[in-house]
Automatic annotation (TrEMBL):
Binding-site residues for Zn(2+) 2, renumbered to this chain: C516, C519, C534, C537
Protein name, entry field: Replication restart protein PriA
Database matches in CDD domains: DEXHc_priA, SF2_C_priA
Residue ranges constituting the Helicase C-terminal domain according to the UniProt record: 542-710
Swiss-Prot/TrEMBL cofactor(s): Zn(2+)
Residues the record lists as binding Zn(2+) 1: C507, C510, C547, C550
Length: 802
């Protein structure tokens, strides 16, 4: 087995296969599939993944592997297989599928070092390598004759580890630790000698008299509500002593989470969890759909099911949509399982992400809570996979590989023979239909755990407001109710449904709309910088003073952004303190969390925001939720627009009155009679499901058919049209009767980043060979893609039809 099969990092379909390389003697003992290597490829040296080994090759004069990057495989056997499956399922390249499963840090080449983890004596050659140091540059290892297998053994024994030196900014985090500098009785004496007014210092000393241990300065400050200057005073008196300590970049200080215990489950919860527990006990793969109203205790069910899995010595993956991966959510998992939880979140720095991944890889944790890509957590003994808010679009990756985390979850669930649990108050029609047919097992939670009714929903017809002379974005009812709440010291959540709306700039004289010069899309006005920005390619320019088309100075912005709403809100209710949450105010790291904390600590009366405020937030003091424009996305050219509207309205309604105070919801709309608005106001999911399924059946949309979207793009318009037409023709010849090929038509955004875009949609009921057919068709354009920058994207499960 002296030959390695390698998938190389060249993202081209002509290279999408394994290449054979000779394994040099020095790597013979240590190399296993799943490791990354550097190999010569043409004139270059590139990275690749070892996916297999063999002793024979049909090629002669093989080149040698240049370097082995990992001493422990970064991809497990299962993940290697999963990568192959993923590539085939989504028609993407093997290399892209492997890359998506790994943290960013492992996708590039970084300097490495060996770190000694033990004080025990190591083998002699390792001792001479470390030569008294704790850290050794990796190159030194490569320069010695030391056998890699010895180092590998030391890593497996936990004596040594390999670190990646991600840019120094994120490599190591140092924290200040504080501990007492004297024995407790001496501290007590000192405490009595402090002046009587030094209450804060006394409190701090008292703490260390009772807890004579080292503690992180920041935690101390939080716990005792004390300050740096108080600590400094005692440091200066040499009663305490400070030191620096390097820590894992654990972004959530575990010790600050209060421990929670399993709650006694309600009847409904028990009924829902029992079959899940059975599957866990019997190592059986089933898919469960928990349809439970907001506040019905789904999360508690997840927590207790995970508890069972941990007891079995197995692992759990919990997926949460990016925007609901809030500190509140993390707290619930860390509160129950403490440091046994890793969190994977896009707001973490690449170093932090790598640390969390490594905790999983080393099996230091049994639970991971994360956004979409956490589905690839390198666990090897999975006992449950949970997808919360399963209807969320963010589970679909809109980039290659275009996968849906739900499909990956079910595939891994089959491999590990473990249950997969999908939960939502508004499941997708696809999932609910499967539950209806018995493919998934359905559990329904009808009641909130606190037995409180869902809040009353009032629909306000904005057309009437207009007729009666109210031109503002706020109905009189909503204003009245807001004023009432503010007077009582209660809080309000206001949602501006922003999809379909934006602040674009238009000339009132000639109607000219300012568009991005590279994309066929209106530019968005940003007031803070007084600039126009493109949300697709990040092009920007200053707000024009004169219309570029007719030179009129009546060029103004239109539409309704959160910023505009905030301004008019403050005009209407001057005493209102408003926190605005949108892409602009939440950009910085931790900004999201900071705004929420301000709201929780009642520094504001109103939380105004886009979709991001509708999910998962749980505020005790919120008694009114308002939706400003319920119908703004009802008319988008997307067959899921009614479903999305229903989901959003239901989610927002769930924000109010979750605790002791009763809640109320106002939905403002121009189409009050629409079924998704009417049924959302009655929380009638099942009726909505029935009506919407009928519509889907009539117009032949999923779940009655499958869709595949092929998008062609190129700088030259003619090339795009011709290619798209040719693809449609070729497909037409090969698909089954009854399969429909729509298009080619221009994509809804017909040009993006200077590239024209056309699309074909395939609608089918059964096409067992579709993937093969598409591959064959696209292969004909290989050369154009390689040499001529033609792009063809295939999405086997399109969600963004725009
Ligand atoms: N068995 C129980 N007994 C008492 N309280 C419970 C129980 N289960 C859950 N709760 C509490 O009820 C509240 C709502 O529960 P939870 O957040 O789990 O519901 P959910 O269905 O996940 O809500 P959402 O869909 O809005 O996220 C929480 O405060 C939770 O602590
Ligand atoms: Zn643009
Ligand atoms: Zn003009």
């Amino acid at each position: 087995m002296n030959i390695a099969k390698v998938i190389v990092d060249v993202p081209a379909s002509s290279i999408n296969q394994t290449f054979d390389y000779l394994i040099p003697e020095k790597y013979a003992d240590i190399l296993v599939p799943g490791m990354r290597v550097i190999v010569p490829f043409g004139p270059r040296k590139i990275m690749g993944f070892v996916v297999g080994q063999t002793s024979e090759s049909s090629f002669d004069s093989l080149k040698e592997i240049d370097e082995v990057l990992d001493l422990t495989p970064v991809l497990t056997r299962e993940l290697l297989d999963l990568g192959k499956w993923l590539a085939e399922e989504t028609l993407s390249l093997y290399i892209t599928a492997f890359q998506v499963m790994l943290p960013q840090v492992l996708k590039a080449r970084y300097k490495k070092e060996l770190e000694r983890l033990t004080d025990e004596t190591l083998s002699q050659d390792l001792e001479s390598l470390f030569a008294g140091r704790d850290f050794v540059p990796y190159e030194e290892l490569e320069d010695t004759n030391l056998s890699y297998s010895k180092v590998q053994q030391a890593i497996q024994d936990g004596d040594v580890t390999v670190n990646y030196l991600v840019k120094s900014r994120v490599t190591k985090k140092q924290v200040t630790m504080i501990k007492p500098n004297r024995e407790s009785h001496l501290l007590e004496e000192a405490c009595q000698e402090l002046p009587g007014n030094a209450k804060k210092q006394q409190q701090l000393l008292q703490y260390f008299i009772e807890n004579p241990y080292e503690v992180e300065q920041n935690i101390l400050i939080k716990k005792l509500k004390t300050t740096r200057s108080v600590i400094k005073a005692l440091l200066d008196k040499q009663l305490l002593i400070a030191s620096k300590k390097e820590i894992y970049r654990n972004p959530y200080e575990d010790s600050t989470f209060e421990k929670t215990e399993a709650l006694e489950l309600t009847k409904e919860q028990q009924q829902a969890i029992t079959p899940i527990r059975n599957s866990i006990r019997q190592n059986q793969h089933d898919v469960f759909l928990i349809h439970g109203v907001t506040g019905s205790g789904k999360t508690e069910i997840y927590l207790q099911a995970i508890q069972d899995v941990i007891k079995q010595g197995k692992e759990a993956i919990v997926l949460v949509p990016e925007i609901s991966l809030t500190p509140q959510m993390v707290k619930r998992f860390k509160g129950r399982f403490g440091s046994n939880v890793a969190v994977m979140h896009s707001a973490l720095s690449s170093g932090e992400k790598y640390d969390e991944w490594r905790r999983i890889h080393r099996k230091e944790v049994q639970v991971v809570v994360g956004a979409r890509s956490a589905i690839f957590a390198p666990f090897e003994n999975i006992g449950i996979i949970i997808i919360d808010e399963e209807h969320e679009n963010s589970y679909k990756q809109e980039d290659n590989p275009r996968y849906h985390a739900r499909d990956v979850a079910i595939h891994r669930g089959e491999i590990h023979q473990c249950p997969v649990v999908l939960g939502s108050a508004t499941p997708t029609l696809e999932s609910y239909a499967r539950a209806h047919k018995g493919v998934y097992k359905l559990a329904t939670l009808r009641k909130r755990t606190n037995e409180k009714d869902m809040p009353d929903v009032e629909i306000v017809d904005m057309r009437n407001e207009l007729h009666e002379g109210n031109r503002s974005m706020f109905s009189r009812t909503l204003i009245e109710k807001m004023e009432h709440r503010i007077a009582k010291g209660e809080q309000i959540v206001l949602l501006l449904n922003r999809r379909g709306y934006s602040t674009f700039v238009m000339c009132r004289d000639c109607g000219h709309v300012k568009e991005c010069p590279h994309c066929d899309i209106a530019l968005t006005y940003h007031k803070n910088s007084n600039r126009l920005k493109c949300h697709y390619c990040s092009y920007e320019e200053p707000m024009p003073v004169f219309c570029p088309s007719c030179n009129s100075d009546l060029i103004r912005f239109f539409g309704t952004g959160t910023q505009r709403i905030e301004e008019s809100l403050v005009q209407l209710i001057p005493e209102a303190r408003v926190i605005r949450m949108d892409v602009d105010t939440t950009r910085g790291k931790g900004a999201h969390e900071k705004l929420l904390n301000q709201f929780v600590s009642k520094q504001a009366d109103i939380l105004l925001g886009t979709q991001m405020i509708a999910k998962g937030l749980d505020f005790a003091n919120v008694t009114l939720a308002g939706v400003l424009t319920a119908d703004s996305m009802l008319h988008l050219p997307d067959f899921r627009s009614s479903e999305k509207t229903f989901q959003l309205l239901t989610q927002v309604s769930g924000r109010a009155g979750r605790h002791d105070l009763p809640g109320e919801v106002i939905i403002q709309t121009y189409t009050p009679e629409h079924y998704s608005i009417q049924l959302a106001s009655h929380y009638d999911f099942v009726q909505f499901y029935r009506i919407e399924m009928n519509t889907r059946k009539t117009f032949q949309y999923p779940p009655y058919v499958f869709l595949t979207l092929i998008t062609v793009s190129h700088q030259n318009h003619v090339t795009v049209v011709q290619t798209a037409q040719r693809i449609a023709q070729l497909l037409q010849q090969q698909v089954e009767d009854g399969t429909v090929i729509l298009g080619p038509t221009p994509s809804p955004i017909a040009r993006m980043k200077d590239r024209y875009r056309y699309q074909c949609m395939i609608k089918y009921k059964s096409e067992p060979n579709l993937r093969r057919t598409i591959k064959k068709v696209i292969r004909q354009f290989d050369e154009d893609m390689r040499k001529n920058d033609l792009q063809i994207h295939v999405d086997m499960q399109p969600y963004q039809l725009m």
